[in-house]
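Handout, page 2. Input:
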Amino acid sequence: MGKESDIPTAQVLVVDDEVDHGEVMAEVLRRMGHVCTIVNSLTQAEDELKHGQFDLIVTDLVMDGQEDGLKVLAAAKKTQTNAETIMVTAHGDVPTCKTALKQGAYDFIEKPLDLDVFRTLSQHAIDAVMLKGQNAQLRERLDEQFGFEGIIGTSPAIRRVIATMKQIAPSTIPVLITGESGTGKELVAQAIHNNSRRAKEHFVPLNCAGLTESILEDELFGHVRGAFTGAEKDRQGRFEYADGGTLFLDEVGDMPLMMQAKLLRVLESGEVVRLGSNESRHVDVRLISATNRPLDEMVKAKSFREDLFFRIKGVEVHLPPLRERREDIPQLTRHFAERFAKQMNRSVPEIAEETQAALMRFDWPGNVRQLMNAMQNMIVVAEGDKLEPRHLPEEITAGASPGGAGGGANDAITAGLSLDQLEKQAIRNALRIHQGNREAAAKMLGIGERTLYRKLKEYGLK
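Output:
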């Protein structure tokens, strides 16, 4: 039987000390269109698993009188993270195979083999592996199109941020997120946590701005009953609550100097003492901090401790202001339009070309948060199925026009790009994301397909 066109080819490792039996299993799989490698010992299997890449491992449980199949399974789990393993066993070894299932085997099959059952079981295992691969690729494509964990954009600046986040998320290194207010620092911190090994534990945020030293100390370290007036019972602090997870300190630059010293002591020792107690408690917490203030200048001015600065700045992630990534604005506006329209149970409105142009010209001192609020306001006040310039908030119509609060066309130049060039880049990005599909690209940009077609001709784009 030849390979069926709709069955994807898998790489299969067959492990059996009985040469003929291994050949029979491999022949069944080859006839299904899969590529098979046959080995006859644990040592050979471990070598193949170390140096090769497989989708399915089919291994005999007992080889040379030993339960080497379990060792093959263990080696496969270490080196073939996406592969599945099928155990082949004699009737008397079924209890051991059930143990193998608990250790991560896909399934087992008894000898003598029913080849039809073996064929079906193998294909189901391969399908499961292929599905995992397709889901991973889909997640990557969604990251490219819609950003990463809600961080939306395809500009080079935001792509660099996302690449850094993916790189540092699995580690435990402290992270310092910098950027203006409204750029999404807490969203980035949450995304790093969600993609770390601590994702199942707590993500605990605390905004340090405006908190006195005593309140901040109580928030971070907790207290015991009677520690101060009103302390009627023991209270766990944020550090203890975040044990095993991530603590996010927003606006860490606003922390009083005395509190900075106490924070540093905890970070160095990993020990927390509640207010009113002498008993220390060990905590395992990953710290992510954020600030919109220049901490390096604050260090020079002696308003932020240098030792704490270097302690929290394991890796710095800088979020660019929205005015430095204007090409992301069409994608962001469409995203917010869809979100708020859904919340209000209405159809998603089209964004008029003039409206989009005004949104791209504006400097957005409040960054993405301000854009989000503006879109929510527009969805509320718009009575039709199109967002016109008259629906724009007043500060945007003033700031987006030449000579207005935003400074006019000169302020629309970012990194050497004029507004027309930014619009052209946004169109290119949308077409690339949607693989040339003009209808989908126009929807993403918030303009009509005819408008997009006209602009393609105007800019000489294909």
